[in-house]
Specification:
Blueprint: E1 11-14, H1 20-30, H2 37-45, E2 49-55, E3 58-68, E4 71-79, H3 88-102, E5 107-112, H4 117-125, E6 129-140, E7 143-153
Length: 169
Amino acid sequence: MNAVVDRPRPRLRAMTEDDLDGIMRIEEDCYDFPWGPGIFNDCMRVGYCCRVAELEGEIVGYAILSFGAGEAHLLNICVALDWQGHGIAGVLLDGVLADALRLKAATLFLEVRPSNLAARRLYRSRGFREIGVRRHYYPADGGREDALVLSRVLGGTPGPAPAYVSTRV
């Protein structure tokens, strides 16, 4: 007998300023050196692809994607501690990949801590490959940690932004 486990599937939607309290709770719980609310506001203000993952009205994760010159860059992706290991990060990353494709990005780049093995496995499962190292990129207790630079070739050419993206400037 095979048991089928129903995993809740979050709804992805555009991030708004009203989401910042929930986002900041997750950001501060998950990171020793969290982004401040001003960074999230700036990302929305300049029109980056800013998404939240929502389950039953609760924000359980978010992602920020920038785009320019035919390239996309995943700036931040995070899942609430209570929801890690439930496939939420994969849903968010698939949404980011879909956005990058709609933008017709040729390549999607990201940085990841070498110590973040779960994230590295997820990125590898979605076709990302290591292309370099940024030395002393991340703040860390007692100093700084390198970042692995990963990329995935998408093959697009620049196009219009996805419909949900805020274009306020």
